[in-house]
Specification:
transport; globular; cell membrane; antiporter activity; mainly alpha; transmembrane helix; membrane
């Protein structure tokens, strides 16, 4: 049931791992997208804006969860690559304990901070109450996000990207059904969309957990595996926390953009919401490729197959370039009909602004693809702090564009803030990757000679 990525063609391995992951991520985006489509179509454009206004706040918290659980799984993948079954089980047990702690802390912080964050970001008064009603449900259900992300990351660390796909498809169907039930039948408004998402995530988490225990003997933990070691836990935190903070730093950057966007009114917020949802959907091949690179590099780093890491990352960069060109072409050419999925007829200003967003972002998808490849390669070899500083650089550049240019360029400044940040961070990450991987290889070769 596992997939050893330390042998065979690097590009074939990365692609075979990426494709199920991509399909799964598309379905995950699909049921997130379903919330906004159903809200925009069945409630109002203002409700669509209310859900959209929470996007950056949600990413701040949920992104932290995704980052930290993915970081824990890097250690699991390294142990798997090294051929240590005991190390894999100890890593899983430690990840579960740390995951419970993360759930408690992040739930408490996010629930208390939800309303103040919306106010700090100057969320328009006509949508702030609905924004709060939606985001508080997402935050109260953080346990579901931790549950699913932890076990899906563990399965991926062993090379299985197909199992989470199946459960995400099931969850997406459940989410859409519950959206209609909660919003149309029970009249729960935007909160109903939030509950549909949380319940769907929880169900997919349970399925992932049960399946992993039944089908993966290597994950059946014993009493000895639960013996907690602060030293071993710190190894997980050393990778997990920088990855989590890197997600959060990126989220803070999007919050800065959202704050600037909010000053332009609810029409601009609705347009940005529709455009960004399409953007997130279109960039899933790039994000999926990044996760595949992280697992590939982690396993090969654990096996000390360092030259294979270079070959795989180079191949992934080529794939990212192709995917970026194709994805950018599609969103630019079909921007208008894609935006029409979110808003009804007569919303000409929303349509126009959303198209502007997609064009200005789509032309830079190649840069974003390279960012995902080199960031995840660094994380896979344990250099999470370097990737974190790339996130800091993104924050700085997003903030400069949002604060300095929005008064001059208006909505266009919000549109170009992310591409500018991608460009700056990618340069940093590429330089860092080549320096670090060559240094590691040189050190390993030196050790072999002296041995």
């Amino acid at each position: 049931m596992t997939n050893d990525m330390t042998n065979g063609s690097p590009i074939k391995l990365i692609l075979s791992f990426m494709v199920p992951l991509l399909i799964g991520n598309i379905f995950q985006q699909f049921y997130n997208m379903a919330d906004t489509i159903i809200v925009g179509r069945t409630i109002s454009v203002e409700a669509l804006a209310a859900v959209g206004a929470t996007g950056s706040i949600s990413f701040l918290i949920v992104g932290f969860v995704q980052g930290v659980t993915s970081g824990f799984a890097v250690i699991t993948a390294q142990r798997f690559g090294a051929g240590s079954e005991n190390g894999v089980r100890r890593s899983v047990a430690t990840s579960i304990i740390l995951g419970i702690a993360v759930t408690i802390v992040m739930t408490a912080i996010s629930v208390l901070a939800a309303r103040p964050l919306l106010e700090i970001m100057k969320t328009p008064s006509d949508i702030i109450d609905d924004s709060y009603n939606y985001i508080i449900v997402i935050f109260e259900g953080i346990a579901a996000a931790v549950f699913f992300n932890l076990f899906s990351s563990i399965l991926r660390s062993l090379g299985d990207s197909k199992t989470p796909l199946v459960f995400l498809i099931i969850a997406s169907i459940i989410n859409i059904i519950l959206d209609f039930v909660f919003i149309l039948t029970f009249k729960m408004g935007v909160a109903g969309a939030g509950w549909a998402t949380v319940i769907a995530q929880f169900i997919s988490g349970i399925l992932c957990f049960v399946y992993s225990l039944k089908k993966f003997p290597i994950l059946r933990l014993t009493k000895h595996d639960w013996k907690f070691s602060w030293k071993f836990a710190w190894q997980h935190l050393e990778v997990g926390l920088p990855m989590a903070f890197q997600f959060s730093i990126t989220a803070i950057g999007t919050m800065v953009i959202q704050s600037a966007l909010n000053s332009l009114g609810s029409t601009a917020v609705a347009a940005f919401t529709a455009g960004s949802k399409i953007d997130q959907f279109a960039t899933q091949p790039l994000a999926s490729l990044g996760v595949a690179v992280a697992t590939y590099t982690a396993q090969n780093y654990g096996a000390r197959e360092l030259e294979r890491i270079k070959k795989g990352v180079t191949g992934a960069a080529i794939i990212a370039t192709v995917c970026g060109i194709v994805g950018g072409f599609v969103v630019i050419m079909f921007a208008k009909p894609l935006v029409a999925l979110f808003v009804g007829s007569g919303q000409n200003e929303v349509m126009s602004l959303s198209k502007e967003y997609l064009v200005l972002n789509g032309v830079f998808y190649v840069i974003l693809g390279l960012l995902f490849v080199y960031r995840n390669a660094l994380q896979g070899i344990g250099s999470s702090m370097i990737a974190f500083f790339g996130g800091v650089w993104e924050l700085v550049m997003r903030s400069l564009v949002a604060f300095v240019l929005v008064s001059y360029l208006k909505f266009a400044a919000v549109c170009i803030a992310s591409p500018v940040a991608w460009f700056g961070a990618t340069i940093w990450l590429m330089i860092a990757y080549f320096i670090i991987i060559n240094r590691i290889i040189k050190k390993a070769n030196f050790a072999k000679i002296n041995y």
